[in-house]
Amino acid sequence: MTIRGVVCLTCSVAALACCTTRKPTPEEARKFIDDVEQKLLVLNVDQGRADWVKSTYITDDTETLSAKLDERAIAATVEYAKQSTRFDGLKLDAETARKIKLLKLSLTIATPSDPKESEELTRIVAGMEGTYGKGKYCPGGPESCKDLEDLSKILSESRDPKQLLEAWSGWHAIARPMRKDFVRYVELANKGARQLGFQDNGAMWRAKYDMAPEAFAGELERLWEQVRPLYVSLHAYVRARLREKYGDAVPANGPIPAHLLGNMWAQEWDNIYPLVAPANADPGYDLTALLKKRHTDWKQMVKYGENFFVSLGFDPLPQTFWERSLFLKPKDREVVCHASAWDIDMVGDVRLKMCIQITGEDFLTIHHELGHNFYQRAYSPQPPSFRDSANDGFHEAVGDTIALSITPEYLVKLGLLDKAPDTSKDIGLLLHRALEKIAFLPFGLVIDQWRWKVFSGEIPPEKYNQTWWELRQKYQGIAPPGPAGAPAGAPRGEEDFDPGAKYHVAANVPYMRYFLADILQFQFHRALAQAAGCAGPLNRCSIFGDKAAGSRLNAMLEMGQSRPWQEALEKIAGTREMDASAIRDYFAPLQKWLDEQNRGKPVGW
Ligand code: X8Z
Ligand code: ZN
After folding, report:
1. How remote is the C-alpha of 573 from its chain's centroid?
2. What's the first-to-final CA gap in the chain, in angstroms?
């Protein structure tokens, strides 16, 4: 006798209908998912609004309210996902089958069925993001406090190792109090994921890619192997140049100390371009300086981004975008400054949340974020289940693809630059881009290599920090800075929780999407440049103003996640495979140049 049958014996007459052994019909499945879509849409929109208020005004109250609505929406999704298993094995039409599949995969965190644990988990996640958002380093009392924006500015501009170390250590200390919560979060998130049928929370994240999770891990390995030689060459070149600057603090053939690379997480290195610029091929301009020289304000920066999309044939952003977004850091309250793009009602109330500063870096980030917003608008006519990107790497890649079109010639068109440097400066331009895009690749990979192992239990809490730095060394070839006076590479302790000093770890945002995006954006760029008829080297192609490129991009965006990502990729790039040949082609002249520079010098760590 089936379990269902046993329960049936004790059922009331009224409940008997639930206990029949009759197989549900495909029509019932269709009705079920249509109904669930509508109910979840309401819950998710409410959750989004509460989350918006919390992120733009962090207080205990907004944190509590937002956690409550998170919990409500997540618990409902979990419940519907469980209910949907009754349609397992049924022959359904393709659309219904995909919607039901996506329902089970839609969460980045599944709450456990115990209401107390469910509440605890959503509270912890809201709290960790709040701790990150409020994080400050106050060396000499409240007046001396520096937030992440202040400390990041030091990391990018200072060349004084002592100052760099202080800013780096000051920020990383904000994560120490998160460690205990993070341990509990891992336990509870795993519990929720297991109740949904996944091995652990990391397995749930890996299941979202329209292929077997093991096959996905294999794809990552393949892509990384394609680009690793380029990274290793860049690393060796940068290390040699930093050694000229900082002497023995940078080892000749070991990992580079993390605080010397111009960025709090050593994830993008373009801020140290002036230290490593090639003598004869420096294009001689700096985007931050150009923006400042023209007195560009935040609104103009966002307008430049919007205009790019409009030039491709997209509609301008709605008035509500300008009214409801957060563009600047408020002086009177705590906010989460980490940039993000929002789709509040899933039908056009798109917003940007960012603490814009007038820098080249933020100019690029604005394009990144608007890529999310234009994607959101393009797929909004789809049924609610399909209002997302083909896979999460696609969402992250769109704005970056546009930013690859910010060429010197394009800056001349905007009136920001007087004259584009000739092709003899291409190595400088490519090196600048490589410090941004090639340096990022192993970082994009490492965050979730670490988290997946944490969720699977392979990394226990007492080894969180040690393994974090082992992986950072293995993939990125970097080491933690030592305490003042000590040699670089002195180990950090387990009282530190350095992963938590990165937003996405504190806020439960999966990270492999950025690694994928780094590869995909070059595939997109190559395909769109081709559509625009650009024959020149890829780094000089801009699709600005090209409607053919725009409609090719839009054809992919408007699909949302209605079809497996392989089909979306085919639509834009004519291939079903993620492939690093585009990024390698783009940087091929630089690879050759780097290898010449590195000749006779140590390579690797
Ligand atoms: O988090 C972001 C965006 C929002 S989706 C600002 N990025 C990653 C990061 O900052 O670590 C963009 C590049 C990588
Ligand atoms: Zn993004």
Report:
1. 22
2. 63
Atom of ligand 1 nearest to the CA of 396: 5
d(CA 202, CA 215): 15
Catalytic status, residue 396: yes
* DSSP letter assigned to residue 250: S
Predicted TM-score (pTM) of the model is 0.95
Q: Which of 155, 365, 369, 447 to mutate to test the pocket of ligand 1 (most atoms within 8 A of CB)?
A: 365
Question: CA-CA distance, 474 to 469, in Å (whole number)?
Answer: 8
CA dihedral 451, 453, 454, 458 (to 10 degrees): -170
The per-residue pLDDT for range 114-168, each reduced to its tens digit, is 999 999 999 999 999 999 999 999 999 889 999 999 999 999 999 999 999 999 9
The size of the chain, in residues, is 605
Asked if 70 and 51 count as a contact pair (C-beta separation under 8 A), the reply is yes
Distance 20 CA to ligand 1 centre (A): 50
Residue 376 beta carbon below 6 angstroms from any ligand 1 atom:
no
Rg (CA), the chain: 25
Q: Which residue's entry shows tokens 């497996």? A: 564
Selection from 373, 422, 423, 377 nearest residue 398 by Cα? 373
Mean pLDDT of 314-323: 98
Assess whether pLDDT exceeds 90 at residue 17. no
Please calculate the CA angle 519-306-267 and round it to the nearest 5 degrees. 35
Residue written as token pair 């992986």: 471
- Cα–Cα distance measured from residue 344 to residue 45, given in angstroms and rounded to the nearest whole number: 6
pLDDT at 484: 55
Structure tokens at 68: 């409550």
CATH topology of domain 117-282+431-504: Neurolysin; domain 3 (1.10.1370)
Question: 245: number of CA atoms within 13 Å, CB side?
Answer: 19
CA distances from 361 to 101, 234, 285, 349, 366 (A): 38, 20, 14, 26, 9
The total of other beta-carbon atoms located within 10 Å of residue 191's CB is: 19
User: CA-CA distance, 174 to 496, in Å (whole number)?
Assistant: 9
Tell whether the torsion through CA atoms of 249, 250, 255 and 259 is positive or negative.
Answer: positive
β pairing state of 146-147 and 136-137: antiparallel
367 catalytic per annotation: no
Q: Provide CB contacts within 8 A for 596, sequence distance 6+.
A: none
Q: Alpha-carbon torsion 312, 316, 321, 326, what sign?
A: positive
DSSP H helix total and E strand total for the chain = 24, 6
The model's pLDDT over 185-197, given as tens digits with 9 standing for 90+, comes to 999 999 999 999 9
